[in-house]
Design brief:
4-stranded mixed beta sheet; disordered N terminus; about 300 residues; globular; alpha+beta; homodimer; about 30% helix; 13 strands; 10 helices
Chain lengths: ~300, ~300
């Protein structure tokens, strides 16, 4: 005989599929728990894995590393000066890159990233983008949902030569924010570089909130802690994007139902954070409803 | 001489005004901290203030109250039966209502509210709506942004006879979800009752996520812990709402810029949770941007 009590309703297939994407993107909790706080000017601005801490400890003139439960990795070089701090760290990173000891530094970008207490705070340190996950500092980026007729989405396929996530499905336009850049400026710049979207069209992109996650670096050496500002750009059906910087292999206009089916499917086709930004857009546009069992948990998970 | 270090940028006036609304709505943290967990079937499903716990302790056959740091208020009547539990609690509430000891019970609604571990869980208990804040249980509701031409919002003025927030500005349609009701059904029902919106128009309302907050009850006896599902309903300019149940004094179509100006102003005109649902809509529609200093904190605060 069956149990009499009514069981919890099973998660809807839509929510279950979406939650899988959110978990894949937010898989950094484990490594974050083992990490040491990264202190700059007395503030905890990042998280350093045990592996990374061990390597940084070999530069005691720049980093003071105290292991253990109440330990930390503290930047001790450069005093209060942004420039001197950044130069001291850059010198360490250059040596680590040359030594080949830290895998993620193979993805060197020559892009300056600000390390800040919060989004509006002044930079306390500027580091090479490829080292962001080494220090586990919060990074900020912008993703653009390129929407046509309200029911189609431009999907890019990343070039196979990309250092990160080669060949994965991506937004028409997405990028990290460089030091000193504002979100709206970033969107217009990346629109031009990545998809040849002219500035007058690009500037019609509308901000719609953000997603947040903590992702384990593929190398196992660190975590990416990202805030991604989500933009929606309604695009005329006549516009066809083209790559301007070789980072995209091809663009295709997908029916939103195909996007949903692919996100729900058990595939590894999507760059993880792109999937989460699209799910946020589906929530905002009512393509998933509170009637889908697990909706509340899903929506909560987009910002944690 | 001025200090040389660059100060944190000041919050934008828009964000500062909106944050004031969010804080007014989410003012329950203090009372929540002093409260005892409310246990039903071994699960903590609410929070009971010291004042409420003292009164509930006078019904030891229904509630076991252990005060102090590790204390709790436990429902001990009714065993595993939803019906028996609910009846036992209803008897206590009827006696408290008759006694006049608990101010919030003066707002008796004769509406059954489910007490659940999460939104999709089965009800563990059903209580009169007016007692929700007495037990500090999570409640669920739906609010509808009635939007015309993408830049105007229908604003209701609550009747002066309403038990809660008389005379305050409100959504065209907003309501709590009764036991057994689904969000989409709730929206269509309330659209008809509150604003005479016909079902075919009401069913075009699109879900767009939710806000969450913990609000101190006006009486000081408890907290309202709400999840409000946000719906956008694009309405034809020809439709004019009218109250069907006497709960609304009047409706007016506001330019969205006037809505923003009123929300930013230092007034007490808005029902607090209505303001937060509108701010969520402004975020989703790009009427506030990441360039507004404090944006990230504001957006985070909408769901906590």
């Amino acid at each position: 005989m069956r149990a009499m009590c009514r069981p919890f309703a099973a998660q809807s297939p839509l929510v279950a599929g979406f939650m899988r994407r959110v978990r894949t993107c937010g898989n950094g909790a484990g490594i974050l728990q083992q990490s040491l706080p990264f202190l700059v000017g007395g503030q905890a601005l990042g998280s350093v894995s045990p592996l990374a801490a061990e390597v940084l400890a070999t530069f005691p003139e720049v980093f003071s590393v105290s292991p253990g439960k109440d330990g930390a990795v503290e930047l001790v070089a450069g005093g209060d000066s942004l420039e001197a701090r950044s130069e001291a760290v850059a010198n360490v990173l250059a040596r680590l890159r040359a030594s080949g000891r830290v895998p993620m530094l193979a993805g060197w970008r020559d892009e300056a990233w600000p390390v800040k207490a919060d989004f509006d705070a002044p930079a306390a340190l500027v580091v090479e983008r490829a080292a962001g996950a080494l220090f586990g500092v919060r990074a900020y980026g912008c993703h653009v949902n390129g929407i046509v007729d309200g029911n189609k989405l431009w999907v890019a396929k990343r070039a196979k030569t990309k250092q990160t996530f080669p060949g994965k499905l991506d937004h028409i336009v997405a990028g990290g924010m460089a030091h000193g850049e504002k979100p709206g400026e970033n969107v217009v710049r990346e629109c031009g570089e990545e998809a040849s979207v002219p500035p007058d069209l690009a500037s019609a992109a509308r901000p719609a909130g953000f997603i947040e996650y903590c992702q384990a670096d593929e190398s196992g050496w660190g975590v990416t802690r990202d805030v991604i500002f989500c933009y929606d750009l309604e695009m005329p059906a006549t516009f066809v994007p083209s790559s301007n910087d070789g980072e995209v292999e091809s663009f295709a206009l997908w029916d939103i139902r195909d996007v949903i089916a692919s996100l729900v499917a058990d595939n590894d086709d999507w760059k993880p954070n792109v999937a989460v930004v699209i799910i946020d857009m589906l929530v905002r546009r009512g393509l998933i409803a509170p009637e889908n069992v697990g909706y509340v948990e899903l929506v909560r998970s987009l910002r944690t």
